[in-house]
Amino acid sequence: MNLQIEKLYKIASKSNRNIIGLMSGTSLDGLDIVYCNISGTGRHTDVNIKSFDSLSYDKEVKDKIRLVFAQENVNFPYLVMLNEWLGSLHAGMVNNYLAKNNIPKDEVDAIASHGQTVMHVPAHQHGNTAFENATLQIGDGDHIAVKTGIITISDFRQKHIAAGGEGAPLAVYGDYLIFSKIGEDRIMLNIGGISNFTYLPGDNEAMSVFVTDTGPGNTLMDVWMNTYFDKSFDENAEIARQGHVNWKFLSALKEHYFFDLGFPRTTGPEVFNIEYIQQALKKSDQKHISHENVMATLNRFSAETIAEAIKSNFGDQIMYIYLSGGGAHNPLLVDTLQELLPVCLFNKCDVLGIAGDSKEAVLFAVLANETLAGSPIDFGTRRGVPGVCMGKISFPV
Asked: What is the pLDDT of residue 382?
């Protein structure tokens, strides 16, 4: 037997596994690294976070990624080189993290790497009937495995698409295993670059679980801040609070077919980008409003589209909403959500024992645990949530 296959078998046979989860989102902030001990599988999964760090990308790294990120036309050789370069970069960041936290490599069973999404094009978006849903994450898993010496599981989204999904949102799988609670209807709302939520029914029935993207979270606000204020994001909504909502502009922002699609649905910064903002300003004849008013309106746009997606599916049902992602730290956005969803009870997901900033990295560690030792969960035949275990396995040698 191949020694790596034998090692994989032993890892899968253990009662608990030490897994490092890696997440780099569409905000391009950096790499989240979480070290977890995960016992059990499926509905018996229990996660103990040993350590967590969020490592920022420097400007050079961000600039390299932006050359291909959500770009319709790219330099293909550059994309190929970046795929491998980013895998090596992530491997180096993991090695530094292990050294900093005095974690022996032989203590780690596996790395779960989401990679960096550079293109997400579900069929409704690309419109080419010859092709199905498509997505691409770079940061090659073999480079991570070889350069860390640790078995790596990566490229999770392809199995989801192969089984009939759109490749997103994947949070539903981890959300269901970790956060479901009998007697409490929950929404796990993640406000990253794109916002998505998972509905977890109080009866804990997998076939009633629901997940969807809602539209922009932080992506439009971030790109405007980066372009006109030379900042990565609007910290504490400082800029947005200086402005006022422009209702004509807001109305134009909502005029996109995505918001008329049925649920579930997915999208990305390929649609919601600076050109989208500029087109809406032009369409509404509001091109000369202040940058502060633009920010106030974009903030409201994210809040309204999130609230409308929740209301469209659940009406005025009382929900416990647990927030994660960068948007959970935006006080204006959160205040507006509470205003628009007055019957819902809001809190950060930190109160459930997992910090919101680490949640996505944890979820991919959980997905890797299911790939190693679990089995597919039957979510029924509904579109968007195929019952699959995801991820490709890379060996160190």
From this structure: 62
